[in-house]
């Protein structure tokens, strides 16, 4: 009589605990991404605005701040800073417009995320 021995193989798959871990991790990542998107979009809009203003030919600090405030009126997503918050300097006879601000993003209940933004014209 020949005994055929069926080899035991490890069963593949994911446990319920593993599945719950991945669902929570993916859910939290999605929540952070969705909540921070408007803040990141605002930063990118500010970055674009200061770069356009720096290359537009305006040369005095009041003109630059006024141009930014005008841009802020057009771009509804800019809420965190105004023209008065810009730092205007010169680098090799080129106008450089810098900005720095913090934005607190409410995630859930008492949990929030504080993002420090900083940029300058290119």
What would you say this structure looks like, in words?
The chain is an alpha+beta fold. The protein has one domain (16-120). 43% of the residues lie in helices and 25% in strands. The chain is built from 2 helices and 3 strands; from the N terminus they run ααβββ. The protein has a 3-stranded antiparallel β-sheet with strand order 1-2-3, with helices on one face. α1 (16-54) crosses α2 (61-74). The termini are far apart.
List the helices and strands and how they pair.
Layout: H1 16-54, H2 61-74, E1 87-91, E2 94-108, E3 111-120
Antiparallel strand pairs: 1-2, 2-3
Give me a quick take on this structure.
With 122 residues, the protein is an alpha+beta fold.
List keywords for this structure.
122 residues, 2 helices, alpha+beta
Strand order of the largest sheet: 1-2-3
**Which regions have little confidence, pLDDT < 50, spanning 5+ residues?**
none
N-end to C-end Cα span: 83 Å
User: Mean of residue pLDDT?
Assistant: 89
- Share in helix: 40-55%
- The secondary-structure class comes to alpha+beta
Task: Note the main sheet.
Answer: 3 strands, antiparallel
What is the C-alpha radius of gyration, as a whole number of Å? 26 Å
* Helix/strand order, N-terminal first: HHEEE
Whole-number count of domains: 1
Helix segment tally: 2
Count of strand segments: 3
Bulk shape: elongated
How much of the sequence lies in strands comes to 15-25%
